[in-house]
Amino acid sequence: QLQLVESGGGLVQPGGSLRLSCTASGFNLDYYSIGWFRQAPGKEPEGVSCISSSDGSANYADSVKGRFTISRDNAKNTVYLQMNSLKPEDTSVYYCAATSTIATLIWGLYDYWGQGTQVTVSS
Q1: Quick check: 96 and 29 in contact, CB under 8 A?
Q2: What is the pLDDT of residues 50-76, one digit of tens each?
Q3: What is the greatest pairwise CA distance in the chain?
């Protein structure tokens, strides 16, 4: 069964850091582009970052550029999202998703989704 599992969420103070992990089971992430998305209550899903399967190139939403870094470790079948300088407005449920096509911040183009992990930034 194809499955994505996110981990690493939690409560952090403003200015702090978290690293989210997205681990795949049942399929090889080497062949998939991976996106990170977030959705706060009452809001539309927002693309945060994505990384290509072909050359590892990455893209970021303007709201997280310079603070978040996406990376992949194909040997561990895992993609990471390092989040630094966190702000209260980063509070959301974060999801990872996989697509066999191009890396994109458009959530509707992804085929497989994890269950999400809660990130709360608060003092």
Answers
A1: no
A2: 999 988 899 999 999 999 999 999 899
A3: 40
Tell me the DSSP string of the chain: --EEEEE--EEE-TT--EEEEEEEESS-GGG-EEEEEEE-TTS--EEEEEE-TTT--EEE-TTTTTTEEEEEEGGGTEEEEEE-S--GGG-EEEEEEEESS---S-GGG-SEE---EEEEE--
d(CA 69, CA 7): 16
> What is the pLDDT averaged over residues 80-90?
97
Distance CA 44, CA 60 (A): 17
**How far is the C-alpha of 99 from the C-alpha of 101, rounded, in Å?**
5
Measure the CA–CA gap between 10 and 66, rounded to whole angstroms: 21
